[in-house]
Specification:
Helix content is 78%, strand content 0%. It is mainly alpha-helical.
Length: 97
């Protein structure tokens, strides 16, 4: 159970790091909550992935792969948003890993 709470805490921190800039950019509450919950879930999933890669690389790949649906959805309204979403997903994923 200790591992769960560590992963949960990592997810909360990653969620706050991703959501904070969105708040300052004036994004909707729904978008901010979505980003926070996305990273909360990834914080619980990434530490338990065993792909035979270094942990940071596993996190970076998983973060990017699991951001693809978000990129597709957001890309409809904001086509230029794919790059910052991808970069933050790789960086935060590596940190979570």
């Amino acid at each position: 159970m200790q591992g769960f709470w560590a992963a949960f805490t990592i997810g909360v921190v990653a969620g706050l790091l991703d959501a904070a800039p969105m708040v300052f950019q004036g994004q909707s509450r729904r978008a901010v909550l979505s980003a926070f919950l996305h990273w909360l879930a990834l914080g619980l999933v990434i530490p338990y992935l065993h792909w035979g890669l270094t942990p940071w690389l596993t996190g970076a790949v998983a973060g990017l792969l699991l951001a693809v649906p978000v990129i597709v959805m957001v890309g409809e309204e904001e086509p230029e948003a794919w790059l910052p979403i991808s970069l933050s997903s790789v960086l935060l994923g590596a940190a979570v890993g």
